[in-house]
Amino acid sequence: QVQLVESGGGLVQAGGSLRLRCEASGGTFSRYGLGWFRQAPGKEREFVARIWWNGGNTYYADSVKGRFTISRDNAKNTVYLQMDSLKPEDTAVYYCAASTTLVVATSASYRYWGQGTQVTVSS
After folding, report:
1. What is the mean pLDDT of the chain?
2. Which long-range contacts (CB under 8 A, 24 or more apart) does 56-61 make?
3. What's the pLDDT score for residue 55?
């Protein structure tokens, strides 16, 4: 059983930056692929980014490519999401999730989820 706890959300102006953090406990962190998803009010949860077990491969949604960077530190059981050039449309609850499958962008393939952290970008 893996527990995930996100932090780092908040209110930021458009063009600003935030760094989300997700700390894991209760499992072998390096076994899991880690992903970030987000859900805006009235919308379905959507894929944001994914990093492989060893951090060697990363994947991004087209909407965040070039602005967001996912990274992980297996020694600290932590995955990060650096978000730059934020836009109002990035406003959402951001979730960290862990997966043992090779499927990148489908939320159903992620077994463990955090509680989410709110990101609000003002215009």
Report:
1. 94
2. 59/104, 59/105, 61/105
3. 78
